[in-house]
Specification:
Elements lengths: L10 E4 L5 H14 L8 H9 L4 E8 L5 E9 L13 E7 L8 H15 L4 E7 L3 H10 L2 E5 L3 E7 L12
Parallel strand pairs: 4-5
Antiparallel strand pairs: 1-2, 2-3, 3-4, 5-7, 6-7
Helix pairs in contact: 1-2
This protein binds coenzyme A (COA).
Coenzyme A binds next to strand 4, helix 3 and helix 4.
Length: about 170
């Protein structure tokens, strides 16, 4: 019988500069897996996530030994944003250590992000996912994101920020 990996209950908190190295260690292998040329060094993590000028929340999931298990970024789309997302929408990005998947870390991050979106009066959140990225597509679909447009190499999904909670995980 297959053994279900134990669900991790990480501490979720806003990212600080001290987290940049741990976040970089999460992002690097993911970008390699996705064959992406995007940067993952700590300086870039600080500029692009922790101190992004349009940041609503950048939160990390921290394990029992203070290791960074994953992080999630929510920024607000401004006029002329490079993603072509409607001004005022949220834009989300999520990265969980590839060795810690399917343990609820991404879901725990989203609970914090959703609260921040509500606090910021964000009504819609965009997630743009590569068409070949089955992890990302499965994750955002499970959270309730729905496809609203297709780009040449990506699928854009939208989450409507209502007052209800995200789709609960079985057993939670
Ligand atoms: C996508 C990602 C953030 C998911 O994080 P996670 O911690 O594994 O997510 P959770 O454990 O909370 O999973 C929540 C649900 O998402 C869905 N899901 C997650 N990974 C999935 C996968 N590989 N295939 C299908 N569905 C998946 C499942 O329904 C899951 O619930 P379940 O395990 O009870 O079935 C993580 O795999 C990741 O960082 N991937 C690489 C980066 C990426 O693709 N980011 C998204 C685009 S920005």
């Amino acid at each position: 019988m297959p053994v279900k990996k134990p669900t991790v209950i990480p501490a979720i908190r806003p990212a600080t500069h001290k987290d940049a190295t741990g976040m970089s260690a999460v992002l690097g292998p993911i970008l390699s897996m996705l064959q992406s040329q995007r940067r993952s060094d700590p300086d870039h993590i600080i500029q692009h996530y922790i101190e992004h000028p349009d940041k609503i929340l950048c939160c990390v999931a921290e394990g029992n030994n203070a290791e960074i298990l994953g992080f999630q970024s929510l920024i607000i789309a401004t006029d002329g944003n490079p993603y072509g997302v409607r001004t005022g929408w949220g834009i989300i990005g999520t990265y969980v250590n590839l060795n810690a998947g399917r343990r609820g870390i991404g879901s725990a991050l989203f609970a914090a992000t959703l609260q921040a979106a509500r606090n910021g009066k964000i009504t819609d959140i965009d997630a743009t996912i590569g068409t070949e990225n089955r992890l990302g597509l499965g994750y955002y679909a499970a959270l309730g994101f729905e496809t609203y447009r297709n780009l040449p190499n990506a699928i854009c999904k939208c989450y409507k920020v209502g007052s209800s909670s995200p789709t609960p995980r079985p057993g939670s």
